[in-house]
């Protein structure tokens, strides 16, 4: 598995970066990561059908924390000031990362058509970027859930720092434990990748149960292009299997049709689907450049081996988006109800 020359310099293999061939199944697992919760659990992060298949003992929290709890200081070395860890939106390709991430938060709020006093659930709220932006600029009452303790600590402090305690609540909680409450709007940004293909139906059914009739759901997720058959699609590539093993335990990517089919099957009406592939290529390239520029600090924070693996992962993701071997889509859907959807007749308001 080789990658073209990128900002981290030269051709590289994941294993070479740390002195062993990590892609060789006979190679010992990288000691910096240990066996990895994905391997220990035998599948991806989301329980449900998969849990039934793989039996008890799967630990979603462990899988999520494996990736996100490297340390907040480490992520701050390459993310923007709002700590958004998903695709930015470049109104102009020359825009810097901070500007593009604010534009993405804002575009997400526009697509959700947030109004003052509405309630918003952000599933997988990360470091709290969207919930804080939505409360500050759109006057909503926002509820964010994450499985990462480091993110929870950071987001809770951010809410306090911004004086948003009355309008933003952050919980260290699996979103599947939420029930008996309905939100006006729900966002899921960069979280669906944790769910797993066999769990799509349960996932969308649960989101539907948390949404008011005609409530808007914004679905933002990385996707792989569909292959000739579902069987070929599910096979995946060796590169992706290595990524799951060493970086993103539990990760699994759908094709966009698989996701929208599942949404429709589970009571959603699809309104818009917008591809942001090149935006994510640019985002990942900027993340790589920033982490590379800050590599000495990253070595001190997370260790040299882990930093190098992260650099290769980010550069590999940049290439994959740039080449088009993966894509990313924002899909706007509503909880299906008879009659008018409640959306405006055109999308002009989004791009004004
Ligand atoms: C790639 S991060 C995206 C964070 C944020 N939405 C952003 O755009 O910056 C994925 C998030 O999903 C969360 N997550 C994954 N599975 C979850 C679950 N079952 N319940 C709640 N949060 C979950 C992780 O903790 C993390 O915050």
TrEMBL record:
<dbReference type="GO" id="GO:0008168">
    <property type="term" value="F:methyltransferase activity"/>
</dbReference>
<comment type="similarity">
    <text>Belongs to the CFA/CMAS family.</text>
</comment>
<feature type="active site">
    <location>
        <position position="317"/>
    </location>
</feature>
<keyword id="KW-0949">S-adenosyl-L-methionine</keyword>
<keyword id="KW-0808">Transferase</keyword>
<dbReference type="GO" id="GO:0032259">
    <property type="term" value="P:methylation"/>
</dbReference>
<keyword id="KW-0489">Methyltransferase</keyword>
<dbReference type="GO" id="GO:0008610">
    <property type="term" value="P:lipid biosynthetic process"/>
</dbReference>
<dbReference type="InterPro" id="IPR029063">
    <property type="entry name" value="SAM-dependent_MTases_sf"/>
</dbReference>
<keyword id="KW-0443">Lipid metabolism</keyword>
<dbReference type="Pfam" id="PF02353">
    <property type="entry name" value="CMAS"/>
</dbReference>
<protein>
    <submittedName>
        <fullName>Cyclopropane-fatty-acyl-phospholipid synthase</fullName>
    </submittedName>
</protein>
<dbReference type="InterPro" id="IPR050723">
    <property type="entry name" value="CFA/CMAS"/>
</dbReference>
<dbReference type="InterPro" id="IPR003333">
    <property type="entry name" value="CMAS"/>
</dbReference>
């Amino acid at each position: 598995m080789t990658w073209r020359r990128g900002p981290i310099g030269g051709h590289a293999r994941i294993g070479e970066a740390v002195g062993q061939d990590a892609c060789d199944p006979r190679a010992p697992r990288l000691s910096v990561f240990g066996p990895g919760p994905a391997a220990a659990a035998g599948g991806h992060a989301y329980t449900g059908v998969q849990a039934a298949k793989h039996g008890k003992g799967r630990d979603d929290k462990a899988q999520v924390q494996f990736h996100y709890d490297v340390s907040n200081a480490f992520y701050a070395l390459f993310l923007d000031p709002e700590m958004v860890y998903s695709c930015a939106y470049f109104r102009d390709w020359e825009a810097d990362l901070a500007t593009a991430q604010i534009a993405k938060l804002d575009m997400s709020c526009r697509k959700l058509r947030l109004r003052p006093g509405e309630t918003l659930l952000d599933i997988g709220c990360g470091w709290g970027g969207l919930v804080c932006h939505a409360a500050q600029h759109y006057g909503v009452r926002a509820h964010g859930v994450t499985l990462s303790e480091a993110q929870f600590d950071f987001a809770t402090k951010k809410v306090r720092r911004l004086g948003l305690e009355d309008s933003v609540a952050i919980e260290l909680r699996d979103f599947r434990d939420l029930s008996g409450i309905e939100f006006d709007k729900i966002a899921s940004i960069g979280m669906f990748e944790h769910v797993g293909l066999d769990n799509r139906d349960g996932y969308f059914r649960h989101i539907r149960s948390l949404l008011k009739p005609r409530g808007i759901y914004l679905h933002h997720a990385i996707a792989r292009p569909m292959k000739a058959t579902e069987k070929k699609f599910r096979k995946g590539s060796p590169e992706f299997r290595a990524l799951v093993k060493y970086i993103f335990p539990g990760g699994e990517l759908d094709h966009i049709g698989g996701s929208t089919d599942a949404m429709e099957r589970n009571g959603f009406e699809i309104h818009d689907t917008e591809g942001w592939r090149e935006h994510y290529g640019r985002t990942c390239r900027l993340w790589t450049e920033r982490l590379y520029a800050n590599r000495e600090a990253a070595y001190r924070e997370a260790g040299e081996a882990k930093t190098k693996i992260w650099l290769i992962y980010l550069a590999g993701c940049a290439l994959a988006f740039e080449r088009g071997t993966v894509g990313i889509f924002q899909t706007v859907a509503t909880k299906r109800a008879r009659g008018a959807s409640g959306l405006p007749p055109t999308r002009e308001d989004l791009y004004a």
